[in-house]
Amino acid sequence: xxxxxxSPEITDVVIAAFGGINAAGRASGHQAYRRIIxxxxxxxxxxxxxxxxxxxxxxxxxxxxxxxxxxxxxxxCPDLRGWNPQSMVFNEIQRExxxxxxxxxxxxxxASNATTSKLxxxxxxxCDVQSAGQIPTGFDVASLYNSKHHPRGxxxxxxxxxxxxxxxxxxxxxxxxxxxxxxxxxxxxxxAGQLDMQGFGGMLCAPLMGQRNTSxxxxxxxxxMPADFINAYLLGNTGATGSNNGACASFLYNLRMxxxxxxxxxxxxxxxxxxxxxxxxxxxxxxxxxxxxxTEERLQKLEGLSNNQQPEFRRASRxxxxxxxxxxxxxxxxxxxxxxxxxxxxxxxxxxxxxDVFIHADGYKRSISAPGIGNYITMGKAMASAKRTLSKTAxxxxxxxKSFVQAHGSSTPQNRTTESDMFNRLAKEFGISEWPVCAVKxxxxxxxxxxxxxxxxxxxxxxxxxxxxxxxxxxEIAPDVQQSHLKIPLNHTKVxxxxxxxxxINSKGFGGNNASAWVLSGQASREHLKTLVxxxxxxxxxxxxxxxxxxxxxxxxxxAKENLPLPYRDKEAQPEPDDIELSAEGMKxxxxxxxxxx
Length: 598
Fold this sequence. Notes:
Blueprint: E1 13-22, E2 25-26, H1 31-36, H2 43-57, E3 70-72, H3 78-81, E4 83-89, E5 91-94, E6 100-103, E7 109-112, E8 120-126, E9 131-133, H4 152-168, H5 172-178, E10 184-189, H6 200-205, H7 217-221, H8 225-235, E11 240-242, H9 250-264, E12 269-276, H10 281-289, H11 296-302, E13 331-339, H12 340-346, E14 352-360, H13 374-390, E15 403-406, H14 413-429, E16 435-438, H15 441-444, H16 451-465, E17 467-468, E18 486-487, E19 493-494, E20 502-509, E21 513-521, H17 522-530, H18 535-561, E22 581-582, E23 586-588, E24 596-597
Parallel strand pairs: 10-11, 10-12, 15-16, 15-20, 16-18
Antiparallel strand pairs: 1-2, 1-13, 1-14, 3-9, 4-8, 5-6, 6-7, 12-13, 14-21, 17-19, 20-21, 22-23, 23-24
Helix pairs in contact: 4-8, 13-14
């Protein structure tokens, strides 16, 4: 059956927990979300957030605001902050006769009858890009577990999964008491892999620098290592594993795998997410060479400044406004998805439910990095799916009128015109007059594979606090943005969570990787779930949920005061063949209450 006509049962896949870290702070407890909407919080809430961020980063409370969100390079990124050494290669030119001359950039030549070697001179260059969405200054995930030789992307991924488990209210051992390995999957990875010196970057650079490759650099650089390390050192998981790479839309690709697994009955609980740590010179220069990033010079021109005046790097990312390129960021986010029956049986929190995810390519393209028509298909299908599915619920035919959008909003001139045109035209066709459009990259930057995970995280925050984040880095929407049927707030907007129960999450990636999803709020999901079970079954769930909430609150209270050690189990005994109970029907592993069925 075509996914354009398939109508899923809403609430059959629910969000039970989330965790992670990005430029705004920790995911659990909605800390990162609260940092984004800081100006809309009460003075008491603001003070509470500053203290939490101070505990996260070991920084004074009065400094944490400046040391979070998009900003100029700080001391945690020394390779990009100052003037960095670069090798210059002089070009060799073979002349007629026996002489060989080497032409040097400054015009000097060196002639010799003998074969000449290439000449290298160390030069220094200041990075053109001077801002990024960096993890809050002072946060050191490497200090929270035995992280020796781990690339930063793996460190952040392990933190995200550990934060999600704490927020779940169940430990890995608790999960194993109720589920078998067949019931569990982990889908988490990165787009670029781990390209710092502990991963692929070190593997490729070591021979050129006269250094020895280590045995860890190649395996730790592979893009699926976030899932592998979560399986091996946090969960002890022997269930399904992997990651689907869709460039900047990768999280929605992983979300689609998790959704299909649970909806088909193959899995009952899936950890899904992405981790990206691209703030290293090679990646920054690579994106800059494409003309994709907001450089210092471009921002100066945009703001009408001279070349010796510093632009407002806090406002470098300006989706749907006059902009000059996107701002790279680092982030790792992890969501725990479960089947509806599993959530009810275990008493897990129901923070929302996944409606569906649609993925399409662009067809023929002039440029592999240019936007195409595939995104019209994914968003159109997502809207039709939501309308069709939710018409059977209490929301009825008003579902789309009570929705909002988390836009890709990358802050490039091409994105602001193409994405706004797509939203605007679809809003008109579906009868939406003022469709709220949020773009949280204004505050977080673009975290590549984790970008749409950041968008889902902020969506959960909006449902919890009733505030839609505005594009506060811009003073006005650009005139070439199509918005006759859109409402793109520049300021944080207070709304009732009941008025925005449906969210569409949109993501676009290089190469034509388009993905769009729709998600239902926790409140609306719970209200619908109550109609599917008896009153006694619902009260029984509520009783079990109280214990989960107690465990969750213990974690949130503790982690708000200090960074907790990760439950990293690298000294755990590995199961050996003699430890398993094997038969033609299946096998039983130590530590698991349930058998694996062949």
